[in-house]
Amino acid sequence: MPILYKIKQITAPHTSACGKFYALAQHTGTWRTRDVARIIQANCSLKESDVLAVISELVCTMKLLLQDSQRVQLDGFGTFKIAITNEPVDRPEDFDPQRNVRSLKIIFWPEYSICADGHRVKVLLDGAELVETPKTR
């Protein structure tokens, strides 16, 4: 199954890339948790309800661990951690989380392997094929 893309032109004025073209990934649908659970059920001995329970517990456990300042590494998948976006201050004593923290976000690093030539290959993208989306009339 290929990764679909279409070619778009950069129209932002006042940039060095204006008028140039780039690939934009196309998505043909969204698979919800239950849909994923059905596929997993078909490929292993677990029932759909068991898979849904595990996924639900994984989400709860990850939330608990991340909010306890832990990183969560899922082998074959990747690592998650919390990052803080904030306004800098001149002195440490001037920092107030209520005033200076703009947001919290989740950072995800996909797991990767290193090829013989030294390049990193993200496990979830290993073997991916790109195909341009057919043009519609």
Offer a concise description of the structure.
With 137 residues, the protein is of the alpha+beta class. It has helices at residues 33-43, 48-66, 97-100; strands spanning 3-9, 21-25, 72-74, 78-86, 101-110, 112-114, 120-122, 130-132.
Write up what this structure looks like:
The chain is about 25% helix and about 30% strand. It has three helices and eight strands; from the N terminus they run ββααββαββββ. The strands form three sheets. A three-stranded mixed β-sheet has the order 2-1-8, with no helix packed on it. It is extended and about 55 Å long.
Strand-residue proportion? 25-35%
Order of neighbouring strands in the sheet with most strands: 2-1-8
Provide the helix percentage. Answer: 10-25%
Q: How big is the Rg?
A: 21 Å
Number of strands: 8
Element pattern in H and E: EEHHEEHEEEE
The gross shape turns out to be extended
Spans where pLDDT lies below 50 across 5 or more residues: none
| Sheet with the most strands, sense and barrel status | 3 strands, mixed
Q: Helical segment tally?
A: 3
Q: Structural class, please?
A: alpha+beta
Whole-number mean pLDDT: 93
Intertermini distance: 24 Å
Name the features:
alpha+beta; single chain; extended; 8 strands; 25% helix; 137 residues; 3-stranded antiparallel sheet; 3-stranded mixed sheet
Describe the SSE topology.
Layout: E1 3-9, E2 21-25, H1 33-43, H2 48-66, E3 72-74, E4 78-86, H3 97-100, E5 101-110, E6 112-114, E7 120-122, E8 130-132
Parallel strand pairs: 1-8
Antiparallel strand pairs: 1-2, 3-4, 4-5, 6-7
Helix pairs in contact: 1-2
